[in-house]
């Protein structure tokens, strides 16, 4: 019996029918256990409450396990369906802007679960040690084979993800290049099958941003390989484009530049990147895509940090020696006073104080800021610097 289980008379490398029957009986529950353990151990594959399990995962695990049993039985060599499913897992990771870390972790968890089951069955069924050893070797080699297929699918997408049909990435770089020749751009656009738009809207994304390429409109140009990923939307940014961006950037962290003529695309991207930096510094609120058109004043006020420092030293020098609490009270009162154009009642409403309290504070403040408050031009500069100063106070990362 032991001789039969070891595989006498069968093709080298193949296991006898008795062992194959034992393994086949384990497949349905083993596939279920692997899926559950992967979802429990790898956060990226965790099933959210109320959400269905992605069918692709289940099908791939079931196909892979069935193909393994077929392989160790010495069965056919055709595993096209399994190979394509494994490659698709790698492609999916690349399309979503993920690394292979989670997928490789899932493979490690899967083979560990499979080996525990094989070892348990071997003990229960008292399989010979030689059979168990051959199963272990075959199982871990098979897992490496599956992982290699997924890596291949991942690299397939990554090698072409930034080179869309017609070399769209190169086209995007031409658009952003200062002084790009319109003739060369038109030729490249024609070769790429891309209609040259009159206006464009640039979008900035953080490094390693997740991007679902399949959700992008076909006319959008994307560069994910840049250290500061970005994309170009032909025309303006309306509701349809906003919905597309929401689908394509599931993490929602991005900044949308202004809609500008094609030749000014680099400016739109520069503003978008600045807005993204202000969000990351805490100066602007992050409520999904940050629209530059809603933050023009902030972008202008914080566009040159060193120059702002110089203006602050000159216009707000009196604040430097004040304790933080008093400094915040003075700036708050001054901003409300300037917004209310010197109307103490309106300023008090903004501050939720009594008008007499505001008048008292302003008498003290006027001793330090009399020159700026008396002169309209100086008052304008003071107002601008104060606004920028308060924005900077919110975002210490910019200091």
UniProtKB/TrEMBL annotation:
It comes from Actinomadura coerulea. This is PucR family transcriptional regulator. Pfam families: HTH_30, PucR-like_N. Residues 332-388 form the PucR C-terminal helix-turn-helix domain. Signal peptide: none annotated. Residues 14-176 form the PucR-like N-terminal domain. Gene3D superfamilies: PucR C-terminal helix-turn-helix domain.
